[in-house]
Amino acid sequence: MADPGALKIDFMDVDGGLRQWKVLGQRDAAPVPGSGMTLTEVEAESESGPVSLVQKSIGREADAADPGLYRRLENEVRVGLLLYRRFGGPGYPPELARLVGYDVDGAEPFALFERYRGPFAADVAGRLLLDEQRLFQTSLLRGVRILEHVAVVHRGITPHSVRWDGHGAQLTDFELASPTARPRRAEGTRPWASAQQLMGVGGTCARDDVWSAGMVIYHMVVGLNSSAALERDPDLALVEPRTRDLLAGVFAQKAAHRPHPVDLLRRLRAPDPIPPPEEAADRKFAEGGHRFDEMMRQKHGTSYRRPPEPADRVVVDEDEPEPETAASPTGPLPHPPPPAPRPQPGGGAGMAVVVVVVLLVIALALWALGGLFG
Amino acid sequence: MANDPRQPVRCPVCLDSFVWASDGSNLFELDPDKFEYRPIDLAGLRDPHKREVRLRSAFLLCPNPSNDVEPHYLPVLYGRYRKPLVIGLVGASRTGKTHLLAAMMGEIEAGGLGGHGLTAVPLDMIRHRRFYRQFVQPLYRGQRLGFTPPTDLPEFVDALVVSRTGETGGHPVAFFDISGEQLAKVGRGERFLAAADGLIFVVDPEQALRLPGLAEDVGALGDLAFSNVLDQLYRQETLLDVPAVIVVSKSDRLRFMRPADRWLAAATPGHLDAELIRMESRDVYAFLHQHGAQGWLLPAARCRRATLHFASATGGRSTDERFPRGVRPQRVLNPLIAMLAMTGVIDGPEAKEVGR
Questions:
Q1: Residue A218 located in a structural domain
Q2: Is residue A303 pLDDT above 50, yes or no?
Q3: Alpha helices, H only, chain B
Q4: Using CB atoms, which residue from B259, B304, B324 is nearest to A106?
Q5: Does residue A328 fall inside a structural domain?
Q6: Nearest CA-CA partner of A149 in A87, A107, A105
Q7: Which of A162, B10, B173, B279 is most buried (most C-beta within 10 Å)?
């Protein structure tokens, strides 16, 4: 932890190595409302030079008051490491906060991130120019799509977990993040979390984040004037046509009816981010498993049966029941949600060929008749 | 076990065998106030029923014919117990054996065996109390336990009588610490080798795994204490019939790594599940192989029945000799449950499948 006396920060880096960096300066940063965690901006001397960091920590009092904070910090570290392992090095997407290290065993556990890209999006809600809004929307939805590439659902997208630096948005605070297709835990707050997430029904999917990102995009346009405004369902008549088109279907009651992040990027005419390389199964780990099987067969002969691979319970979108009691801020939709494509055997193209052939036959017949009588 | 008074019995503490007999002169009872054993004075007790009740809760001073262990006491009912089990915890110093055993005892004290229909009571109350005060209580108060210097002799740590809930006559289960790289083949060492019913091999990821922050430069030979005890047990069979459990202790260090993360987060079923144990064993084996710890897998290859487990006695690292976030044992009873199944304390068709 940061020790103001010694001005050192001891932590474990993302590769598992122990580090001790000299603290050059630090100051309290604005906390995320309702988070319970403390944010400190730290300037430190790393092995390769000065670095700007954000230290997200749990104070002793907060820890005692809410034991769930520690689990959330641990989860944030877990997701940060997953993102590091999938994107690594210079290709790490700027749309996602980047974990530098952590100490989850100390009296005041913390996670260290590269300095966030800017202030809370909430600080500039309702004040972005049209071009800035487009940049904001594109980068936020790219972040959602990149998370989907690695099968992570953020589940906590709000104007306080999104940062904005004037050029792009950045997703931070992965405390509630979950792998996709896992049973939804009831978490989040209205209006940012979807009804399914608030109730904890069905399985997690990128369309949970589509709801939340859509709600942030909506409020970035109309502003966050009052808590009463947040209670109301989104009124898309209040936003300009391009954003209205973008948000069509985003607040559909069932997650499966909401557009996919790729659809939203397409509506913005933004390119789909390139996915990271497929995560290859570790060769040495697989080899170790085969050696175990071989050893067991040698010891126990054919009575040994290779056990199944451990697998998590999968809950896909389609499993979710219809939310009954939650509010349904669907708002007026200028366009209906895009219908699911239906395969049509021998569809439109086949019909056109038939028409052309019939016309040709008729023309040939007329030509032949003309020859006969002419 | 000792229904025939002429048959020698083995004391699970000193591992000596002797004929179970008492002329009444070596009987003791536990003084609950001073918490010490005092000789029983039955002089004024004429009522045969009361006399019998008092004798049933009495203790016998073990004669320890080898005279190499401090005085210890066995319940008079010991003669009616089933076969005692002698379990060795094997691993070099600082691998976390003491933390693991203290956490096991703490979880047993909290009723952790209840889900498997088992109860456990101390065999020697005073020794158990000493272990509890010296190790279990400080650990659960967040204190890092002191370093146990290695020795070439097996050191008795504690013993429990494990019974099926509601039944009498359980199995005495004694735990020994085997830390030396040269297990002496004389005295207690020899007796241990003759009596060992099961071995729990403790792998310290900080010493065994080739990973940044752990041990980037590990030897390929593994823990010399492992090979030492296995070599000493070798009796010209292809495979040893002593069941082995390999525990990756301090698995909290691996909590963000696959597959340890999944197993540490997984709920433990309240019943024996041999297939689940096999799944975890395969994952642990593959993980140790993946990270260059093949040398630590020797017990799995040499023992006919073996299981492998991830466990953490503390749930986190210590700072300045303390665990600042308190102690949260994870999966510490799973290795013991597997051992109890492989040694017959837990019986039934599912138990027979464990480790195969």
A1: yes
A2: yes
A3: 48-56, 97-109, 125-131, 137-140, 187-195, 205-208, 224-233, 260-265, 274-290, 298-302, 333-342, 349-353
A4: B324
A5: no
A6: A87
A7: A162
Please list every residue in chain B whose beta carbon sits closer than 8 Å to the beta carbon of residue A282.
Answer: 290
Nearest Cα neighbor of B258 from A277, A68, A284 is A284
**Cβ-based neighbour number of residue B169 at 10 Å:** 12
- pLDDT of A191-214, one tens digit each? 999 999 999 999 999 999 999 999
Q: How far apart are CA B269 and CA A26, in angstroms?
A: 47
Q: Are residues A126 and A106 in the same domain?
A: no
Q: What is the pLDDT of residues B304-353, one digit of tens each?
A: 999 999 999 999 999 889 999 999 999 999 999 999 999 999 989 999 99
DSSP single-letter state for residue A10: E
Residue A61's domain spans which residues? Answer: 4-114
Residues 6 or more apart from B128 whose CB is under 8 A from it?
Answer: B122, B158, B159, B160
Residues A161, A92 share a domain: no
Residues A54 and A132 occupy one common structural domain: no
Q: Are A64 and A147 within one domain?
A: no
The chain-wide mean pLDDT, for chain A, equals: 86
Indicate if A162 and A228 belong to the same structural domain: yes
Interface test with A, best of B255, B279, B282 (most A CBs within 10 A): B282
- Let me know if residue A170 belongs to a domain: yes
Q: Are residues A73 and A132 in the same domain?
A: no
CATH number of the domain at A210, please. 1.10.510.10
Strands (E) located in A90-176:
99-103, 110-114, 152-153, 162-164, 169-171
Query: Which tens digit of pLDDT belongs to each residue from B109-147?
Result: 999 999 889 999 998 888 899 999 999 999 999 999 988
pTM comes to 0.86
Q: How far is A349 from chain B (nearest CA, A)?
A: 50
| Predicted local distance difference test score (pLDDT) of residue A144 | 98
**Would you say B243 and B199 are in contact if contact means Cβ atoms under 8 Å apart?**
yes
CB < 8 Å to B323, chain A: 105
**A106 and chain B: CB distance < 8 Å anywhere?**
yes
Cα separation of B229 and B249, whole Å?
Answer: 19
Q: The CATH number of the domain where A34 resides is what?
A: 3.30.200.20
What is the per-residue DSSP string for B94-141?
A: TSSHHHHHHHHHHHHHTTTTGGGTEEEEESSHHHHHHHIIIIIHHHHT
| Of A114, A143, A169, the domain-final residue | A114
In a domain, A134, yes or no: yes
For residues A134 and A225, state if they share a domain: yes
The ipTM, to two decimals, is 0.92
Q: Tell me how many domains chain A contains.
A: 2
Residue of B nearest to A106 (CA): B324
Are B212 and A287 within 8 A, CB to CB? Answer: no
Contact A152, A205 (CB under 8 A): no
Which residue among B256, B290, B316 sits closest to A284, beta carbon to beta carbon?
B290
Residue to mutate among B250, B325, B354, with most A CBs inside 10 A, is B325
Determine if the peptide bond prior to A275 is cis (ω within 30°): no
In the predicted model, residues of chain B with pLDDT beneath 70 are 1-6, 22-24, 180-185, 215-221, 236
Q: Do B289 and A291 touch (CB under 8 A)?
A: yes
Q: Is A6's Cβ below 8 Å from some Cβ in B? A: no
- A373–chain B Cβ distance below 8 A for any pair: no
Contact A304 B356 (CB under 8 A): yes
DSSP for residue B230: H
**A211, A250 contact by CB (below 8 A):** yes
- Residue ending a domain, choose from A232, A267, A302: A267
A16, A78, A282 member nearest B212 (Cβ): A16
B interface toward A at CB cutoff 8 Å?
Answer: 211-214, 239, 252, 255-256, 259, 261-263, 266, 275, 278-283, 285-291, 300-301, 304, 316-319, 323-325, 356
Closest-CA distance, A239 to chain B, in angstroms, reads: 43
